[in-house]
Write a structure and sequence with these properties.
Layout: E1 5-7, H1 8-24, E2 30-34, E3 47-48, E4 58-59, E5 63-66, E6 74-81, E7 96-100, E8 112-115, E9 119-122, E10 125-128, H2 130-133, E11 142-143, E12 154-156, H3 164-172, E13 177-181, E14 185-190, E15 195-196, E16 207-208, H4 211-221, E17 225-228, H5 236-246, E18 251-255, H6 266-272, E19 276-279, E20 281-285, E21 291-296, E22 302-308, H7 312-330, E23 340-345, E24 356-366, E25 369-374, H8 383-388, E26 391-395, E27 407-412
Parallel strand pairs: 1-20, 6-7, 14-17, 14-18, 15-16, 18-22, 20-24, 23-25
Antiparallel strand pairs: 2-13, 3-12, 4-11, 5-7, 5-8, 6-10, 9-10, 19-21, 21-22, 23-27, 24-25, 24-26, 26-27
Helix pairs in contact: 1-7, 4-7, 5-6
The protein binds adenosine monophosphate and magnesium ion.
């Protein structure tokens, strides 16, 4: 079977294209959730303001509501207005002030709020401090009605991940429930004759199946629904049986069996089932054998699949770079891309690799900057080193040697 090996940049943009297409399809299943269980979910429909926000001209300070034109004068305090109350008087007239609390509605007639810290109060009169009076303008310390959002205006877009900030907006619009996309079902199939399940005692040359657990955790971390299938042995029949079961999910993720070895059968089985391959390898390390495509289901619809290399670090890196974005797209998310940041290297790193490299690394965020140090490791089977880091330094293909202090790109996980 002939293959298509892409550069890392090409592969990433190919995946992102599919992810964004998927996100734009209205095919996601939608369910309603209570606001208190909405965190982390993807909003399925836009949320509109149910009234002007703020619903009245709101004071942003504790102080006095006055007419800006009166700022230079001594004013008579004619009342007080608290948040949640309307001032009892009709209108603030020339020469008058009304004491006002943060969040209260501006009384009729007033057009500015001056801060309590900037005035001298004596009995029932008040006067702005001389150095402040000249700076008062109409509108000062007031958010006009509807300035944040007009009734009916969109305040949250479909495809937004709901976190505290977004949930606060929904609550302020009186939403008790929100429509969110259902978690996409992701079938996970690990392949390999050498593998044993975690509950079993491995023979001296056997390897515990750790990828199923890593992949399930990664899928759930994205809000997907992980469906782990039994291990596939390295025979055409067994791999076929597991792929045929797994393709009924919305996304099929396979681990192992995609390299050049005699028993790497995943691609052959997928081809036999009529799969379309978008790429069959990427010039990157770890992760070169990664495969992306779609395979027809029994009902003739297509299911996206990834064949990830079985080495656990490769599996996790390729998930973060390729699987996570597509999964986000399948769940209707607007932002799908992997999370990159820039950090300063704390040690020198050899460059010059022909392919894009991802080195397990520890990112430390501090007030004076973000630094990253590469973790010593023994290649892409080294799960322990991988767990000592919290991200990966990205070394671009053909890049120069990098020195301590250089800015590098980091893939966060
Ligand atoms: P493969 O991609 O099938 O050639 O496997 C590459 C390496 O990853 C081998 O050393 C495998 O033993 C290891 N490996 C494959 N699948 C898993 C898995 N599910 N859990 C842990 N290690 C694995
Ligand atoms: Mg294998």
């Amino acid at each position: 079977m002939s293959g298509t090996v892409l550069t890392f940049e090409q592969a990433l943009s190919m995946v992102l294209e599919h992810a964004r297409d998927a996100a734009a399809q209205p095919s996601q299943r939608v369910e309603d959730v209570l606001l208190e269980s909405a965190a982390g979910r993807v909003l399925a429909e836009a949320v509109m303001a149910d009234r002007d926000q703020p619903p009245f001209d709101r004071s942003t300070r504790d102080g006095f509501a006055i007419r800006a034109a009166d700022a230079e004068r001594t004013l008579r305090v004619v009342g007080l207005v608290r948040a949640g109350e309307a001032w009892s008087g009709a209108a603030v007239s020339e020469g008058e002030a009304v004491e006002i609390m943060t969040g209260a509605a501006l009384p009729e007639g007033a057009d500015a709020v001056v801060m309590i810290e900037h005035v001298a109060v004596e009995g029932d009169s008040m006067r702005l401090n001389d150095d402040r009076a000249g700076a008062v303008q109409a509108g000062m310390n007031i958010v006009p009605r509807g300035a944040e959002a007009r009734e009916g205006a969109g305040v949250l877009r479909a495809g937004t991940v709901l976190r505290a900030a977004e949930i606060a907006v929904a609550a302020s619009c009186g939403r008790v429930t929100l429509p969110v996309t259902a978690g996409a079902a992701v079938a996970i199939v690990s392949t390999g004759d050498e593998l044993v399940e975690v509950e079993e005692m491995p023979g001296p040359l056997q390897i515990r199946n750790s990828n199923n657990y890593a992949l399930a955790a990664l899928v759930r971390g994205e809000g997907g629904e992980a469906r782990t299938l039994p291990l596939a042995r390295d025979t055409m029949e067994d791999v076929r049986e597991k792929i045929m079961a797994g393709r009924e999910a919305e996304l099929l993720v396979l681990s192992g069996g995609v390299s050049m070895g005699k028993y790497d059968l995943v691609e052959a089985v997928l081809a036999e089932l009529g799969a379309e391959f978008f790429f069959t390898g990427v010039w990157m390390q770890p992760g070169k054998p990664v495969v992306f495509g779609r395979v027809p289901r029994a009902d003739g619809e297509w299911t996206y699949f990834f064949g990830l290399p079985g080495n656990p670090v490769s599996t996790q890196v390729t998930f973060a770079l390729f699987v996570a974005p597509l999964l986000r797209g399948l769940m209707g998310r607007r932002e799908v891309g992997p999370r990159f940041m820039e950090a300063r290297l704390s040690d020198d790193v050899k460059g010059g690799a022909k392919v894009t490299r991802f080195l397990p690394a520890e990112v430390t965020s501090a007030w004076d900057g973000v630094t990253v140090s590469v973790v010593g490791w023994h290649g892409s089977g080294d799960v322990a080193a991988n767990a000592r880091g919290n991200g990966y330094v990205v070394l671009p293909a053909g890049g120069e040697e990098l020195n301590a202090g250089n800015a590098v790109r980091v893939l966060l996980r």
